[in-house]
Each structure stands twice: as C-alpha cells, then as structure tokens.
Amino acid sequence: MKILLAQDLKDSYYQSIYEVWPGCRIVKALDFVSQKREIGNSQVLAVFSGNFKVDLLYEAKKLKWIQSWSAGVDQFTEPESLKYLIDNNIKLTTMSGVHGNIIAEHVMGLVISLSRKLYKFYWQQKNQQWQWIKVDQLEDRVMAIIGLGSIGQEIAARARAFKMKIIGVKRDTGTRIPNIDHLYSHDELLTVLKEADYVVVAVPLTDETHQMIGEDEFRVMKNSACFINISRGQVVDEEMLIRALEEGHIAGAGLDVFTEEPLPPDSPLYKLDNVLITPHIAGVFPAYDQKAIKIFLENLKRFKSGSPLLNLVDYNRGY
Fold first, then answer.
1. Spatial separation of the C-alpha atoms in residues 299 and 92, rounded to whole Å
2. CATH fold of 2-98+286-305, please?
3. pLDDT tens per residue, range 132-173
4. Could you tell me the fold of the domain covering 100-277?
5. What's CA 308's distance to the chain center, in Å?
6. Tens digits of per-residue pLDDT, 298-316?
7. Where do you find CATH 3.40.50.720 in the chain?
C-alpha cells in the first residue's frame, strides 16, 4: 500500500498514518518531477490543489482514492479529469467542514470593515488625518448567503450574533437551515439580491455556478450593498464586478478569490478604494493540518475496511 503525499505534512503525522495502516509506504513528493516519478504505483494521493498538476492523474495507473487537503476540488472536476476519475473508479474526498469556522470569521471581518469603514480609517491613520466618515451598523441589515453548505451555515451563525436578518439560496429548499430567516431556490436569486445589504458567495465551482453572478445580478443589487466572495473567482464575472464597483451599482466588495491568482498587478481591483483584497487566505489557520489529518486518518480507516468515505464527492454534482 503506497500513499503519496503531495502535501507538506510534519513527520510527526506519519506515525499516526502507520498506526492506521501498519506496513504502508508513505512517500512525500512536493515537486512535479518527484510526483511524476512516484504517482504511477500509488494507491492513495493526499494533495493540496495548489501543489499538484492535474495532468499527472493520467500517470496514476493504480490510484484508487484522492484525499484533497482543501474543500474545493474544481481542478479535479474539469470534464477530462473527471472522466478519468469515473472511468478508473477513483474516489475523491474533500476537507469539507475544516474551514467553516475560520472562513466565517474572515467573512465577518470583511463585513465589519466595510460597515464601519475601518479600511478608510486605517488610511487616515497612516496619513495622520482625523476626519469623521459616515459609518453603518449590522443590526437589522440583510445578509444573503449564496450556498448553505458547512461554510455558509457557519457564516449565518455569526451574522445572527450581530442581529442581522439572514436569507439564503440553496439547491434544496425543503430542508430547514439554522439561522436562516428565509430560504430561496437558485431560480429566485435575483429576488434575493434585490433585498440584500451584504451578499456572500459560498458555493462550490461547478458548471452550474460558473459566472452565476454577472451583469444582471449586480444591476439588481442595492447601490448601498456590499459583495463578499470567498468561494472561487470563476463564480463571478470579474469584469462585470469591476464595472459595478466603478459605476456605483454596488457600494463595495470584500474579495478573497479571483479569476486569475495571484491577482495580476494591473488588475483595476487594486486601484478601487471601495474594495478589500485578501490573497485566498480565508480558510488558512494555524491548526489546519491538525484538523485535516483527523479527517484523513478516519477516511484511511474507512478505505482500508471498505466503508463509505467522509466528504465523498458526488461526481454528478461536482462537489
């Protein structure tokens, strides 16, 4: 049994893996050359998406299971790679549930900064200025959460603590979601956007969600509304987002993800004074690997025994 780690884990975690599967062979490969050399006879691949070229999948003749070290797996669900996974009966699992708390914290940090104009006061501070700026409050403001998986639900719980009204968009509206005042279907997205003061996008990237927020969606939003994206950049038509910000169709944005990453230096987003940019770090926190290894070890036990895996990707849905 060979486990390929395309993820830089501490050596102390190796013993935990050996305890689950004594006698397994663990190989760490963090660069393309070593990954290409080692993947051919690996049965298990543990990988963070940014550390791996998906083309290497076609070298994986014995691969049976991929444990993604992130919640998003869109690089593996592109049509060609997805077909390879299906045809070769390779299972794909995610780290769904690990990020919920920290991403929710990040979202509320962006929301509070936009509401209280903290970013503008910081600019004043650096320029030795003392000037009142009109600020807002969160109580009774409407937050629309597009996507109510584990991350979206954690965001809703924190928004509730600030006494916000929370509405949500979900594929299945028949299931009650905690902290959501009203639940809408995807077909009712424009209705939701008209009502929202803060729009938070937390959907996985699929064919269905690709550029789901574009010109029509930004035009129905309040000109006082703010847009938050912590999902994937491709969920949004970035050109239309920039236009909406420049022309005042929306008041501001907090963005952690972008169509192209790193965000190119010539992107107009850098120059807009109503935008907060973070470099795709909403899900990063010091104890990430400590939480992630627990999911991996549990899945390793299940894989060994032939039991259903946690966070198994539904290839029909793409997440």
1. 11
2. Rossmann fold (3.40.50)
3. 999 999 999 999 999 999 999 999 999 999 999 999 999 889
4. Rossmann fold (3.40.50)
5. 24
6. 999 999 999 999 999 999 9
7. 2-98+286-305, 100-277
DSSP letter string, 266-312:
T-GGGG-TTEEE--S-TT--TTHHHHHHHHHHHHHHHHHHTPPPTTB
Look up tokens 């509206």; give the residue.
Answer: 173
CA distance 235 to 229: 9
**Choice among 78, 210, 261, 317 that is catalytic:** 261
> Would you tell me how many other CB atoms lie within 10 Å of the CB of residue 145?
29
Catalytic status, residue 186: no
Give the count of beta carbons closer than 10 Å to the beta carbon of residue 191.
14
Could you tell me the pTM of the whole model? Answer: 0.94
Residue 188 annotated as catalytic = no
Question: Per the residue annotation, which of 219, 280, 298, 302 is the catalytic one?
Answer: 280
Dihedral sign of CA atoms 180, 183, 186, 192 in order: negative
Q: Are 312 and 92 in contact (CB under 8 A)?
A: yes
Annotation says 243 is catalytic:
no
